[in-house]
Structure formats: structure tokens, C-alpha cells
Fold this sequence. Notes:
It contains 13 helices and eleven strands.
Amino acid sequence: MSIILDAMGSDHYPIPEIEGAIAAAREFREEIILVGNETQILPRLKEFNAENLPLRVVHAPDVLEMTDKPVEGTRAKPNNSMAVGLKLLKNGEGSAFVTAGNTGGAMFNATRILRRIEGVERPALTAIFPTRKGQCVVCDIGANVDCRPEFLVQFAYMGSLYAEKILGVPSPRVGLLSNGEESMKGNALVHETHELLQQTPLNFIGNVEPKELFQGEVDLVITDGFTGNILLKSSEAVAKLLVDILREELRATPLRTLGALLARPAFGKLRKMMSPEEVGAAPLLGVDGLVFIGHGRSNARAIYSALRLARQAVQLDLLGALRQEIKLRLNSSSTEINPSLS
């Protein structure tokens, strides 16, 4: 197994990518291909004494920066590290691709180079949220700002399979994100999607609010990318706020500091559960290849976690399962829902 890593993706590239790749290579003993400017990568690898690890560098002279527009940036920088890495994946030189770079650029290049799985109209970016009872998959979190109801139905099929494979949940409970649990709540998109999901063989439990998500009452939440991205960023912001306030209050007096020391294991567990570094990246489901997109702020731990998640997806044959799911279930049972698939 080889995992391809965009070494020029994060805000502080290539240091987090190199450190994360070294940690993963040491643990898994499987090849990681670092794609990026070799003049910046090779000296760093020597500094970390990584010569004996299964790491390979493929030169890519261009970098698609966070400020670059996806289409214009790719045209101006055709040999950017994302494009070069995805071409390696397309040519079978790796089993999965990981980047912490420009999300729009990653989606554009992945769709352009790998194409979509036949039958998929829109790829969806999929995140794993911590809940009171474990974890929940949320799809889409930003790949598609504007959606049609049939797109969300496809997200439900792909997300359901992802929850089965990665979370090990049989027949995942599927909820549609809305401003109320009642079927009459929501906008036109929610109303139409609700009707379509009721006609599928999925374990659709109806509309859900964020509270059901975080209480663990649902295994998969479906929404459009605009709403999903706001949900993701709001959740991250609230989690950081709570941790920061708790840290400040526990250091306010010597007595509180002593209490914090005694409760350190509990706080450590909470921090680990809420940290996005433990997941590392979100898969772009629907493109014909395993593509994982992390946050620009990713550190070495997040990069390592992203590589671990990509490796798990390869081991579980997530891509093969998605192709089969779409061919056997989505393309057949959704023909009446979405005639364009027939």
C-alpha cells in the first residue's frame, strides 16, 4: 500500500506534512509518497534522519495556495502538488491521496483528474463528528454550496456506506438536518429531500436538529454543503471556546489548579474527543478515487491521523464498496427518484 501526501497543502507546509508522514511511516511501515517541491522537502527529511523509512519524494514545482481560486489557480499552476499527486493516484501509483490544502482546489482537481464514479452527480465532503454516544457522519460539509434534493439522496447513500465501513454501524440511522424534527419544518430543499428519502431503503429516521446529532441519536446527518460547513465551523468554534474558558478558569486559583491536576485524565479524554486532530481529514465521496481533505491548520498529529484514516479506507476497500453501492443500490432504487441516473 502507498499513500500519496500533498506535502505543500497546510498553512505551514511542508513541516507538518513531513513530520506526520514520518510518524505514519514508522508505525505502518508502508510507503508514503510526498509530493511537492523537493528542494524544500529533501533537506528536511535529512534533518529528521528519515532515510531508512519508506518515504518517497515526487517533485511538484507549483503550490496551489489557500488564496488561489481553484480553476484559475490550477490553470496558472498546472504542476501544483495536488494535481501531480492526483495524477499519481489516477495512474495507480498509490492507493489514496491526502491533502490539507485548498478545499476548492482539491475538489476541482479531483473531479477533473479522477472524474466522478458513474452515477454520482456531485461528490460530497464528509466529516466525523464526536457525539455523546460515539461518532456521527455528516455529509456534505462544504463541497456543494447549492444542492438539489436528488444530490442529498446520493449523499445519504454514500454517507450511509461510509458510516457502515468506517464506524462499523450496521444500517446507520439517517437524519436530515433541519430547524425542527417535525416533517413540516425546513425550507423547500428539506421538504423535497424528506419525501425522497422516505422512498429509499435507507434507515431514514426523519428530520433532526443539531441536538440529536450531538446526543448520538443518529449515525448519519445529511445536509447541503453551505449549511454543513456552517455547522462544522460553529461546532469547532464552540468547542474551542469551551476548552479555552475551562483552561482559564481552572488556572484562576491554586485550589482550582490542584483540582485540575486531579481531573487531568478526564480532561484529556474530553480534549481528545473534541480535537479535530484525531480524525485528520474528510473523504471526498463520489470521486473515482480515495481523496481525503484536511484543514489548512493541520499540524503533524492531524496529518498522521489523516494518513491513518486513508489507510483504513484502503484496507476496507471503501472505493470498491462505493462503486458497488452506487451500481447496485443507487442506480437501481433511485431511478424513479432521479431519472437522470437511468
